């Protein structure tokens, strides 16, 4: 690379140039700002489109550790009234006997919180608007990325040049920043699609997250806060074989709800569809490295996993906590955010945690995907054994809370 970045240095040079202003990218900008680091955040979409009512029926399970992060960057007050505590998790093989119930002891708190993605975005975007250390560039396309010994620069389609010390790729699974750097992926296709929407239902969910495993794919019901009119509400993530995805999406609302009701076995009584259906192909992908010269990857740009157990966003938020902590410690020693030593520390910190979580989730998907009555019986025997082992259940609950392993300071209770 030539010295063009040095020539592009403008008065508004910032510590970070974050490409991608979604849930992980904007959380990173806010977490960095809390520690005095400035950033440019570039987002292709219009925030109004991302937060329009009814557009996105997706929801995210926010682990206890991730909730600490939101609390520590000042979002708890805005988000707390919108979240639904996950008081327990029920895991079952096709609603047959032998399920596992993960329920914390009294005083241990919930396993996490469920939020509609729209509500998280609204809180993040409002905080970003009021944060002078964040320069937010929306409906903006990056046409050129440059990195050299002097810094980084992102040129936008309108000619603006955004400069900084470190470039962060946070654009999601199809990250052009990652691809342009030539970073490879360990990847495979699950040959399944996730059908995602939100349901209103007759009976209360009592804060239970259901993970119902069928041989065709997992069927998850995730508790959401009741609607203002008192209707009970849950998010649905229904995994179907890829060949069936278009057909399920083409069903009428009534036919779709009838298929959903069959798999719920009367769990919540009458159902109503309250968000549009969305369909996503399911793949596994893990970047072969997550740093380069003055470059770091976070969130789905670094790793994309099956939505089982809802750990994808939490893994990205751990990236945020680790990267911010490494950068803060380096800057205290007089290093700039793009220093190679700091990026090496970030990559080493995240490598084992990411690999472990993704491998476990992939193993569970494959285990419960084995068809046949014999396989189902063996799974249920194993689940029954786990149900009778408090120590093992506690281990799994700590994983769900995100409190295992070395946690960044931002993800610890202060």
TrEMBL record:
Residue ranges of domain FAD-binding in the record: 16-351
Domain of life: Bacteria
Keywords, sorted A to Z: FAD, Flavoprotein, Monooxygenase, Oxidoreductase, Ubiquinone
Pfam family, one: FAD_binding_3
Sequence similarity: Belongs to the UbiH/COQ6 family.
PROSITE patterns hit by this protein: UBIH (PS01304)
SUPFAM superfamilies the record matches: FAD/NAD(P)-binding domain
UniProt pathway annotation: Cofactor biosynthesis; ubiquinone biosynthesis
InterPro entries with a match to the protein in the record: FAD-bd, FAD/NAD-bd_sf, Ubi_Hdrlase_CS, UbiH/COQ6, UbiH/COQ6_monooxygenase
Protein name: Ubiquinone biosynthesis protein UbiH
Cofactor(s) in the UniProt record: FAD
